[in-house]
Fold:
Amino acid sequence: MLNCNPCKTPVDTESKLGPDGDPVEDPTLFRSLAGALQYLTFTRPDLSYAVQQICLFMHDPRVPHYTALKRILRYVRGTLDQGLQLYCSHTSQLIAYSDADWAGCPSTRRSTSGYCVFLGDNLITWSSKRQHVISRSSTEAEYRGVANAVAETAWVRNLLRELLVPLHSATLVYCDNVSAVYLSSNPVQHQRTKHIEIDIHFVRDLVATGHVRVLHVPSRYQYADIFTKGLPSPLFTEFRSSLNVRPPPAQTAGAY
Structure:
């Protein structure tokens, strides 16, 4: 596909992959390409959601899955100069963005949750993953995503403490679901949320001790959207840049 027509996004905004379709002629080729793309996500977080979607069907790939995989390759072909950039940062605050696409899978109705964690101005960890259970509400799906992000930031804080650079300010976790933000600090256990009790108490304990603050962010600035669903091209490009996935800075004359 060296001479393929590039596309602006790795996944479209309409279709959702399911188990339907004719089997592919060469499943081994599909699995090989999907595995290679998994390695590419180590430096290309903008590919995480698209690659996660096709990897769900590696056991039984179908023609629509192969078409989606080729779209990712077309996107990569047009963005070969893009990559995760790291810069000198003047702040060491830990900030996470968490989002979930409630019941996004058309066949299982499971949600996809995603998060990204910044240390200062640099993206250091991210995830796009299908939730293991079916959420009965969007609040539950969002809150499970928040719990995953909080667990990741707790691990990062412990790692920095072992490296003798502890963080003294609270971790900020941004979520675009008001109900999930409310549950993180409200000590009342509601009847409709008893089934997510463990995640609620886990996050609340860290909020109560001052290690974490869960705050609301408008969907327009929810960067974790790029890990949970297909986005329109202008919004995708903006979020990709916000994740520091950009071409390398141009070298000045005489630089090596």
